[in-house]
Amino acid sequence: MPIKDLHAAKFDEGTLVKLELFQDYLKEWLPVFIHSQHQSPINIIDFFAGSGTDCDGTAGSPLRIFDIIEEYLDAIINKNLSINVILNDFDEEKCTKLKAAVNTRLDENQQLKDAINVSFRNDDFGKLFSELAPVLKNESNLIFIDQNGIRHVSQDVLATLDSFTRSDFLFYISSSYFIRFDFKNHFPDLKDSIDLNKPANIHREIAEYYRKKLPKDSATKLYPFTIKKAGGYYGLVFGSQHCRGVEKFLSICWKKNGTNGEANFDIDEEYKLKQRTLFGPPRVTKLNKFRTDLMNFVLENGEVTNGEVLEFTLARGFESKQAKEVLRKMRDDKQIEHFSHAKIGCEQVYKNNYIVKFKKR
Fold first, then answer.
1. Which ranges of the chain does DSSP label H, i.e. alpha helix?
2. Disulfide-capable partner of 224 in 138, 203, 242, 325 (CB 3.0 to 4.6 Å)?
C-alpha cells in the first residue's frame, strides 16, 4: 500500500488541526514535568517526523516542539533539566531536510540549542522503538506516532507503551487509511471492530479496539478526537495513565468544540437532536445525557466523593467544570446536601488530597 507523503504538498486543514492539538497538548504537558518533584529526563519523541515543514515552509510537529520548549527555556535552564528531543523518519531524504530545518531553527536561539539534546534518527519504527523502550520505561515521555506508523502499533507495542509509567502518547490516523488497510498482515481482528461505511466514527472505534487490547489492570486511558476536512476524516487517539494528562487533553478538545469535545465538527449531528419531532420533545444531546447520568450516579449511590465524581466524569470524556455545574444545580435544587466548593480536579483530589462528599438529601 503506497504511503502518502504529507510534507510534499501544503498542509491541509485537517493536518493543521492535528498539529495544533499536538502543540497545545505539549504546551500543557511540558511544564508539568518541568516543575515535577520527580526529576527525570524529559523525552519528546516524534517517530515519523517527516521533513520538518510542508512545501510552503509551514512548521510541522518537530519545529513546533522547539517553539514550545522555548517558552519554558528559563525554567529548564534554571533547573538544569535534561530535555531530549528524538526525531525519526525512515525516509533518508526527509531526514536530510529535517536536519536542515531543525538546525536553522536552533541557530536562531543559541540558548535553546545549548539547553536541549536533539537526536536525528533514520530508522525503522520497530527497531528504534525496541531500542528506546528500556530507557523510556523509567523516564518522562511524550510520544507522537503519525499515521504512517499506525500499522506498527501492535498489541505488543501497546503493552510496552502501557508499561511506561510517566508517558503520554498520541496516534494520528486517517479514516481512509483504514479503508485501504491491510488487515490480514497487521490486525486480523480489527476489521470486525470498525464500520468502514461510517468513516466519521472510525477513531472512536479504533480507540475502543485499543482499550480492549490493554491489560485488565491497566491504568492507561484512551480518548479519540476526530477531524473533518474536505478529503475525509482524520483523527488522534490520545493515551495517558495520569489524571492530569487526561484532564488537560480533554480541556483542549472541549475548547475545540464545546458541543461534543471529541471532534472539530458536529460528529453526532446534534443539531438534529435539538429539533422537536412531531411526537415529542427533542432527543437527548451528549452533554444533557452526561448531566442526567451524573445526577443519577449521585442519587442512586446516596453518597459519593469528589474523587468518584472526577473518575466518572473523565471516563466519559467530560471536564470537571461540567460536573461542577451538575452538582451545583443539584445543591440549589436541594437534591443533595449543601457544600461550598466541589473541588473536582486532579490536583485537588490526588495531589492535595481534598475530600468532599456529596450526600443525597
1. 13-34, 61-71, 73-78, 92-107, 110-115, 125-136, 155-163, 175-179, 183-186, 202-213, 243-256, 270-273, 286-301, 306-315, 320-332, 346
2. 203
